[in-house]
Amino acid sequence: MNMRPIVLMAAVALGGCASVDIPTGAWTLRAPDGSESAVEVSALREKEYFLRAPGRTFGGAYLYRDKELSITKPDNPRMSGYVWKLKSKGELVLVEEPAVPVSGVRLTSAKLEKDRNSDD
Prior knowledge:
Elements lengths: L3 H12 L9 E6 L5 E10 L2 E5 L7 E6 L2 E7 L8 E6 L2 E6 L3 H4 L7 E4 L6
Antiparallel strand pairs: 1-2, 1-8, 2-3, 3-4, 4-5, 5-6, 6-7, 7-8
């Protein structure tokens, strides 16, 4: 009996199990001061994401749980404490961040919005 088709079907089935709670691709940060910048969201593993945010302090690996995206491994080890709340499939709002003396900037209430032309 040839087991190859069964192994292939199992691999496809298991690969399809990972659900994407946060859309991946290009997002735009809309800061409270009105500035905007590009952010790239990538899936690492199930419920784990990476936010690439050049020039911003919140870049790093995040864990998604209970409609919140919490930083687990920041690009800069001093920048722990970021938490984004999922408002809709394409919108996150920053609800927690490090103290201003550590980050040098206040972003609480900033929004991340999924770019409509970006693939999911």
